């Protein structure tokens, strides 16, 4: 798997360092964007089995990208219906 370079590291470290400096609108926008992406994964019939703030990468524009620390086949799994 190849990911775009994330200048600000993962969401956990980014928030740990910058939480007090971010306005609430920015925090809510991050939450909304992450929720939207997770919804798209679920809508496609997949689940992210290792979802946490350390797996969400932050680039310079504070956009997010989900990453996996394990193989994709282990982390994103087809839901059973």
UniProtKB/TrEMBL annotation:
<dbReference type="InterPro" id="IPR011009">
    <property type="entry name" value="Kinase-like_dom_sf"/>
</dbReference>
<dbReference type="GO" id="GO:0005524">
    <property type="term" value="F:ATP binding"/>
</dbReference>
<dbReference type="InterPro" id="IPR001245">
    <property type="entry name" value="Ser-Thr/Tyr_kinase_cat_dom"/>
</dbReference>
<dbReference type="Pfam" id="PF07714">
    <property type="entry name" value="PK_Tyr_Ser-Thr"/>
</dbReference>
<protein>
    <recommendedName>
        <fullName>Protein kinase domain-containing protein</fullName>
    </recommendedName>
</protein>
<feature type="domain" description="Protein kinase">
    <location>
        <begin position="1"/>
        <end position="81"/>
    </location>
</feature>
<dbReference type="InterPro" id="IPR000719">
    <property type="entry name" value="Prot_kinase_dom"/>
</dbReference>
<dbReference type="GO" id="GO:0004672">
    <property type="term" value="F:protein kinase activity"/>
</dbReference>
């Amino acid at each position: 798997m190849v990911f775009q370079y994330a200048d600000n590291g993962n969401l956990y470290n980014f928030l740990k360092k910058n939480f007090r400096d971010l306005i609430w609108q920015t925090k809510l926008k991050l939450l909304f964007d992450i929720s939207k992406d997770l919804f798209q994964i679920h809508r496609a019939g997949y689940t992210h089995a290792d979802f946490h703030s350390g797996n969400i990468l932050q680039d310079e524009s504070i956009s997010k990208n989900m990453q996996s620390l394990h193989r994709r086949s282990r982390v994103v799994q087809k839901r059973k219906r």
